Fold this protein.
Amino acid sequence: MVPFKLVNIGFGNVVPASRIVAVVAANSSPMRRFKEEARAGGKLVDASQGRKTRTVIITDSGHVILSAIQPETIAQRFASDEDGLPAGSAPLGEKKGRKRRSS
């Protein structure tokens, strides 16, 4: 079984990374219309916990997910390695850079 990556979208809510098509800012008029169309079609998931919606996440199934987290933050989480670390960072206890010579 191949494990799949989950992206934290805030407040303990996660979305499978493989299902995300787009992560966009929620403050434009087209996004507001898109949210209303999804609400009318029963495909809107509000994960903002009553806070101001900052991000609209569009999935391959046509669902629209609202989040209170900034789009840049979600994009960074989406781009992070499988172990949850930022892309290019070393796991805890391992240093990046040159290896020490043994004496």
About this structure: The chain has a mean pLDDT of 84. The CA atoms of residues 19 and 60 lie 5 Å apart.
